[in-house]
Amino acid sequence: MPIKVLISTPLRPYAGKQSVIDVTAKTVGEALSDPVTRHPDLRKHLFSDDGKLRSFVNVYLNDEDIRYLSKDATSVKETDPITIVPSVAGGI
Amino acid sequence: MALKIPNALYNQLRRHGEASYPHECCGVLVGEFDEAGGKAVRGVVQCGNTRTDSPANRYRISPSELVRIQREALQAGFDIVGFYHSHPDHPAGWSATDLAEAHWTGCSYVITSVENGRAVQTNSFLLLDQEDAMHFEDEELDIIEQ
B81: which of A28, A65, B10, B31 fits an S-S bond (Cβ 3.0–4.6 Å)? Predict the structure, then answer.
């Protein structure tokens, strides 16, 4: 059973217009590597030139931010959805 | 292209701005994209403003709330189509901060000016393009009477 990576609205044009991508992975890093390999345009929207996750991109495993887990090395199970959401902020 | 929103939901987001005054309110618009690129709002989800350091002129939605809202929207057959926030005692136009912090291309950003605690003007702006070319365009707000 694959792991589901949920793609938010602004990223879908770079991910084959898909809202969900099924991947096979043991870690979050592997799970993110699969979609950006299949969809190279997605890579620059998720990662900076040095390969780090962009500051405004949030990756969640279930309801947990991977920055507060083990980041890319965080283990994943088939029942754990991964969600990618850009931040929402602003003001006067 | 327009953002279609039922009158009750339109009033709901404006009331949120009034209730949060003198702080900024914020929330998520859940609905559907149509073939022509327009959007229809089916639900308004109020969020907390996590910018507690400067809530009168800044807002931020917790990513964990976004994750939950997006997951529930997808399960219901809907999507996140936009966001809303208020500008206390400030016009209902997008600011430099709004643009600098905007990342949801293709989505609507609805802004309500709240003057002395009363919602005055509500406008919608469509975020287009990426990175240096990213910009807002005025978007028709089509309020549907029900």
Answer: B31
